[in-house]
Amino acid sequence: MSTVRWTAERMDQLERAARDGLRVALSRRGTEYVVVAQRVASIDQHEALVGWLPMTGEELTFRLEEIESFQVIE
Fold it and tell me: What's the structural domain count of the chain?
């Protein structure tokens, strides 16, 4: 499993998406998700993206070290 290399620029993209409520397409464990970013938070001593699925309203948490790829959709 290859994960994203979290540079300052990539973190800025993710934080901006959360601040502006943008959609983020990401892959974790081979499954692709498109969520509306809510916040980047520290959860159980791990950085994580919290977002919700627009179709169901379900809130999902993605630990950053588990994300294989991501793209902000503007």
Answer: 1
Model's pTM, two decimal places?
Answer: 0.88
66, two tokens: 């588990």
Q: Could you tell me how many residues make up the chain? A: 74
Q: Is residue 2 part of a domain?
A: no
Q: Establish if 3 belongs to a structural domain.
A: no
d(CA 43, CA 54): 22
Residue 1, in any domain of the structure: no
Q: What is the dihedral of CA 64, 27, 21, 50, to 10 degrees?
A: -40
| Alpha carbons 56 and 3: distance in angstroms, whole number | 27
Q: Sheet with 31-43: list strands edge to edge.
A: 59-63, 46-52, 31-43, 23-28, 67-73
- Mean pLDDT, to the nearest integer, of 25-46? 95
